[in-house]
Amino acid sequence: MNTPFGIANLWLEGDAITRFVALALLTCSIVTWVILLTRVWELRNLRKLKPELEQFWHATSYEQGLEVFSNHASNPYYQIAKSASGASVHHQSQSNNHRELLQTLNYSEWMARSIKNSIDSVAASLQKGLTFLGSTGAVAPFIGLFGTVWGIYHALISISSSGSAQIDQVAGPIGEALIMTALGLAVAIPAVLGFNAINRGNKLLVAELNRFGNDLLAYFVTGARVKSGE
Prior knowledge:
mainly alpha
């Protein structure tokens, strides 16, 4: 008598390779959803910080503006603004001691590079988890397909050894093996969609950081924002 059709039977009847493939897909799925939920939550919180920008620009002093930002440890606007302030102080304090070196990099160039480096650092931190999502989306279907091929082979060997090739004897094991392909797609599709969504969110955030960086550069070089009326 055949055991019930499904994933449980595939696990019970499968060999070590089949179980390894199933565990690999399960692990990829769990990690994928952890990354997705974590990154979506982080992007949501970062978008909530945008109103603090106007409070920063309307502060009576730069130091007071820095205090407007919340969550300093994870706030990219604060990190960029703080780094720009430090770069400005460093250039001014070193201009007399290393005049010849700084002549090759004037204040405007120095601030532009310092702000860009800060933005690049934040942008790099936003990429965490995307490599795994992209790799999972690309590889998971093939892992599932491998599990299917191996499961069908394993099922055919079992059927051959039993000496029975009736449709009810073949359909169950073959159908269970095909579940691996479905599992691979079930892991890959959220990974691909999540990768695209998070990547788009990162690009929008980096564009906003670049605008903020341009305003900071204008402030340090000219004393005013580029678009102070916004």
